[in-house]
Structures are given as C-alpha cells and as structure tokens.
Amino acid sequence: MKIQDKVLLKPTDFKPSFIDWEVKGVLNPAAVRLPDKRIVLYVRVAESAHPKNSGMLTCPIMSSEKEYTFDYQKINKKDIIRMGRWGEMYLKDGLCRLPTISHFKKIVLTADGFNIDSLDEKPIFTGMPGDGDYGVEDPRIVKIGQSYLMTYVSISINEGVSTSLAASNDLIRWNRKGIIFREQNKDAALFPEKIKGKYVALHRPEGFFEFSRPSIWISYSPDLTYWGRERSIVQPRVGSWDRRRIGAGAPPVKTKKGWLCIYHGVKEEEKNSVYSAGAFLLDLKNPEKILARTPINKPLIFPEKIYEQSGYMNNVIFPTGAILDNDKEDLLIYSGGADSVVSVKKLGIKDIFKSMEYY
Ligand code: MAN
Q1: Disulfide-capable partner of 292 in 13, 118, 224, 281 (CB 3.0 to 4.6 Å)?
Q2: Is the Cβ atom of 137 under 6 angstroms away from ligand 1?
Q3: Cβ(313) – ligand 1 distance below 6 Å
Q4: Are 92 and 81 in contact (CB under 8 A)?
Q5: Which of the listed residues 27, 28, 42, 86 should we mutate to test ligand 1's pocket, taking the one with most ligand atoms within 8 A of CB?
Q6: What distance in Å separates the CA atoms of residue 205 and residue 185, rounded to the nearest whole number?
Q7: Is any ligand 1 atom within 6 A of the Cβ of residue 242?
Q8: Which residue, 46, 48, 44, 64, is CA-closest to 133?
Q9: Probe residue for ligand 1, chosen from 138, 215, 263, 274 as the CB with the greatest number of ligand atoms within 8 Å
Q10: Over the stretch 163-206, which tens digit does the pLDDT of each residue have?
Q11: What burial class does residue 359 get, using C-beta atoms within 10 Å of its C-beta: 0-12 exposed, 13-18 middle, 19+ buried?
C-alpha cells in the first residue's frame, strides 16, 4: 500500500516548561478540522521533572487550578521496587508514580495536513487538582454540532488513570465535565455524531485479572454524563499482531461503507511489545456490528520507520487522530511514533477498504 508520511513534531521543537525539566516526547495527538479547512492538533507533551544531574527523583503534582504550578513529591531510589515498561516506578508503599508529566499544546496545520501553520508554546490544556494532578494524556477530539468534545486520560491522586471529558466552542477555553470512564479505562474516542439519539463512545477498560484480554468496548449516553449499555465489541485475536491488547485509536470516520475506525494492537509483553495499527468498519446505524477488519497476519501500519522503531518506547505506532483529506479519497492518520514524535500518514481510503477482511 502506498503511504505518504512525515514526522511533524519532535521533542526538540519545544522548550521545557521549566528550567530543570526535559521534553521527553511529543506524541499521541488529537486532530480535528476547522471550518476554514486547516487542521488543529492537540499534542501530548511529556516532560520529565527531575532536576538535571541532581540524581534526585521527583514527582510533580499540580498545585493550582489557575496556574501551571506544582508541588514536588521526592522519591527515594531505595523505595523503588521495580520499574514498568514506561519507566513508571512501583514503590514500597504499593503506589506507582510516572517518570513524566504530560500536558497538551495546540498546533495548527495547513489544510493539506502536512505542514505547520502555527505552533503555540503555551500549554493549552493541563491537568489540575482533582482532574489530572499527575497530568493529562492522549486526547481525542470530535466536533458535534458547534461543540468540540475532547476525551483525555486524567491521572489523579484519588481517581487514578481515568478518562475525562471537556467541551469547547473555540478550542481554547474548555469546560471540564469530569470523569466519564473510571479507572482503569483509557483509549476513549467519541463518534462524531449521535446515533439513534445517543452519544456513542469506544473505550478500553482493563481488568485486574486476566479473565479476558483488554478489548474495545462501546457505550452510549443521552447527555455525555451518564454512560451505559456497555459491551466489548472488538477483541484481540490469537496469533495476530493484535493478540495481546487493543485500544480505540482515532475517533471513527464516517464513510459510505460504515464507520471507519483506526485502532492500535499490541503483541507480546513488557519490553518486547510491538504496537501496530489496524482498521475495522462498523455499521452506520448499528455500530455494534463489525463489517470488516484488518486481517490477523498483516497490520494496516507496522512500526517500520526509524522514528517508530527507536525512541522513548521502541516499536510503537499509536494513532489518535484520523481526518478525511479534502478530496475525501484519502485518510490522514495522526500518530505518536515510539512515544517520541508526532507523524502524519496519508492512505487511500480505497486501499484501506481493499486491505480489510469482510465478515
Ligand atoms: C500506553 C499509553 C500510551 C502510549 C502507549 C505506547 O497505551 O501509555 O500513552 O503511547 O502505551 O507506549
């Protein structure tokens, strides 16, 4: 398949928020088209807050609702029992702390989706006490009516890793609606319109025990606050590139054939994980009906570029935005590469449909 691609953003394009901090990655962007055809990205900027060369580990905790300011929890190295694959620190007291804290920056792209029109250095959206004390991650944005709706991962002192929702009319000021899917539930993407009078979301709850593999669920809401009628609709497949865990990627894209959903799938575990991207197609009227999916033996996009194979987390393509090109014949997919950079890839819609297996 012909894929045109480009790295749009890398860590060195941004200054750290504070003198001692370091930008570790710009990744996993939300993407939405403006009425003037340009495309807005909300990119996740992940920073480490350990004062350089001090040998000290600190965990920043948001301390104000108004400003981007922090308290610092000091972490003693002897209290760390083990480190996770992302460098998260599992502590003696049973708690886990992240090595980075993330916020979002707003980038405007030209209408072709391949070039930067403007880049805003100020954080546009950060965590705050009670809604992302430890930061916010992996946004997805859709426009329903006049309202932009953003789902994002909020990591909070009492609520852990949950999915929150915020609404905006201008992509600048956000009205925070709080948690919609409680911990541990990430990878939430809203459909860009109501179906049979209800808002619909894909999301990915995780259990504590391995009765099932983490899979993509669907939920419905009359008002964006109360969500229910949940069930798992797309699962990892034995022997596949998506065998270990999967999660919704970009918000579904409406096509004549159905809702086109780009997702990520993981094989293997711990240090050897490989994150690839695939697609599935859902019935327009009944989004619980799967019409087609990327086959077991060949992902739609394998992390084969150097910027996907080596970075903060090697072998990761993590799509979080998908937008129809102006000619409506191509799909622009916005992803994190190796948890370090943001890329755009242009794929023909017909080619995507041709590559899928129909049920
Ligand atoms: C998890 C999350 C993402 C990250 C991927 C790949 O799903 O932490 O933010 O991009 O892993 O490492």
Answers
A1: 281
A2: yes
A3: yes
A4: yes
A5: 86
A6: 4
A7: no
A8: 64
A9: 138
A10: 999 999 999 999 999 999 999 999 999 999 999 999 999 999 99
A11: exposed
Phi, psi of 130 (to 5 degrees): 90, -15
Q: Which residues, at least 6 apart from 229, have a Cβ–Cβ distance to it below 8 Å?
A: 219, 220
Q: Per residue in 96-142, pLDDT tens? A: 998 899 999 999 999 999 999 999 999 999 999 999 999 999 999 99
Kindly compute the dihedral angle of the four CA atoms of residues 245, 357, 332, 187, in this order, to the nearest 10 degrees: -20
Positive or negative, the Cα torsion across 15, 16, 22, 24?
Answer: negative
> Distance (Å, rounded) from C-alpha 80 to C-alpha 96?
9
* 150 Cα–ligand 1 center, Å: 18
Atom of ligand 1 nearest to the CA of 86: 12
d(CA 337, CA 264): 12
C-alpha radius of gyration, the chain, whole number: 19
ω into residue 184 within 30 of 0, thus cis? Answer: yes
Cα dihedral across residues 180, 202, 330, 116: positive or negative: positive
- Ligand 1 pocket residue status of 275, Cβ below 6 Å: yes
Q: How far apart are the first and last CA of the chain?
A: 22
Cβ of 248 below 6 Å from ligand 1? no
Q: Cβ-count burial of 353 within 10 angstroms (0-12 exposed, 13-18 middle, 19+ buried)?
A: middle
Task: Report how far ligand 1's centroid is from the alpha carbon of 327 (Å).
Answer: 32
Q: What's the CA angle centered on 294, arms 238 and 150, to 5 degrees?
A: 100
